[in-house]
Amino acid sequence: MTEASRPLDQRERAALADLLDRTGPDAPTCCAGWTTAHLAAHLVVRERRPDAMPGFGLEQVALARPLTEHAHRLEDRMRERTPYPQVVAAVRSGPPAWSPLAWPPVSRLVNTAEFAVHHEDVRRAQPGWSPRTLPRADQDALWPAAVLFARRVPGGAVLRRSDVPGREKRAGAGRRTVTGEPLELLLWASGRRDVARAETS
Questions:
Q1: 55, 79, 103 — which closes off a domain?
Q2: Residues whose CB is less than 8 angstroms from the CB of residue 197 and which lie 6 or more positions away in sequence, other chains included
Q3: Domain boundary at 103, 127, 162, which?
């Protein structure tokens, strides 16, 4: 299998691990308050500690606060007790075989957006970054995730692809239109408004 023929989730994982190795543990990211060490620990805990999963993404839910705090404690412990190169190696190698996230169909469904977004979280926090040019197939793979994330945005939006004339999707009841390539729309919908190259009208 050539590099270009590997599934997008695998390629984004490998590219992010390479970037984490190059930047080291103290580089900034687009995740507020997180360095690359925080991000790497998050990715490993997410894939290797099933007890952390209920706490992810629930920071705004008061009743879920103990679950969120547990997940954060696991991430802190990983970051403080495991040398950074080992954490990055665990990001690169992926989840253990017993994890559903190790199954290719599940990984494509769950990890494609996760690794694409976090890859950009590191890339776009570094000086001199520029948008990547992704193949049409990769943009197509990110399009459903962009729509899904946009449905969670208060007020919703109409997403319009700038790379495919006439392709748009309503996410929620909102009237605003956000235009860009799927990767940029995914970043916009996941809250990275300051670095997403997307236009709102």
A1: 103
A2: 131, 180, 181, 184
A3: 103
The letter for the amino acid at 75 is E
Domain span at residue 171 reads: 136-200
Band (pLDDT 50/70/90 cuts) for residue 117 is very high
**Two structure tokens written together for 37:** 């060490």
> What pLDDT does 69 receive?
81
**Which residues contact residue 126 at a Cβ distance below 8 angstroms, ignoring those fewer than 6 apart?**
23, 27, 28
Q: pTM of the prediction?
A: 0.92
Please check whether residue 175 lies inside any domain of the structure.
Answer: yes
Reported as a pLDDT band with limits 50, 70 and 90, residue 27 is very high
How does pLDDT run across 3-20, given as a tens digit for each residue?
667 999 999 999 999 999
